Amino acid sequence: MARLFMALSLCVVMLSACGKKAEETHEAAKTEEAAKPAEAGITKEALAANYNLEKGKEVYEATCQMCHNTGISNAPVVGTKDAWTERTKQGMETMIKKSIEGYQGESGQMPAKGGNAELTDEQVGNAVAYMVEASI
Ligand code: HEC
């Protein structure tokens, strides 16, 4: 009986050790994935291929530049690389989603669709791409 118990507890210890290892590997993979877009995924070429930067510029000039050209209410200034390095690590999808829905960040309040509810998700995506393209 005691031997069976020993064998069982040994199993449990081994299992939990294995479980932990798998978890750690998974965490490492996730971090790597999150850091990738800035290094490899987000390039000027990829942005030009996947978004309409011309249309993005129009949207930017009409709706976004009032904050993002000057940094009013602490908005990250377009064309300032340092202001965007950490942000681009999130990847385009996340940045676009946050711009569509709006969010309260550490530096300030980004209004949903820059405050223009008439913009489509696609228009906001193009504007984000235009802004990022000018800031990397
Ligand atoms: C009223 C001012 C204002 C306007 C207008 C505005 N923004 Fe912002 N935006 C902000 C602020 C402030 C932040 C920083 C929030 C933070 O991270 O603390 C921000 C952050 C962002 C970010 C970075 C998101 C991230 O995940 O780090 C993007 C992209 C963005 N805005 C896109 C846009 C687009 C596109 C428009 C126009 C459609 C727009 N903004 C209009 C104030 C504004």
TrEMBL record:
PROSITE patterns found in the cross-reference section: CYTC (PS51007), PROKAR_LIPOPROTEIN (PS51257)
Keyword check for Transcription: no
Coiled coil: none
Keyword Iron in record: yes
Tree of life domain: Bacteria
InterPro entries per record: Cyt_c-like_dom, Cyt_c-like_dom_sf, Cyt_CIE
The Cytochrome c domain, residue ranges: 51-135
A GO MF term: heme binding
UniProt signal peptide: 1-22
Pfam families: Cytochrome_CBB3
This protein's UniProt keywords: Electron transport, Heme, Iron, Metal-binding, Signal, Transport
Name of the featured protein: Cytochrome c class I
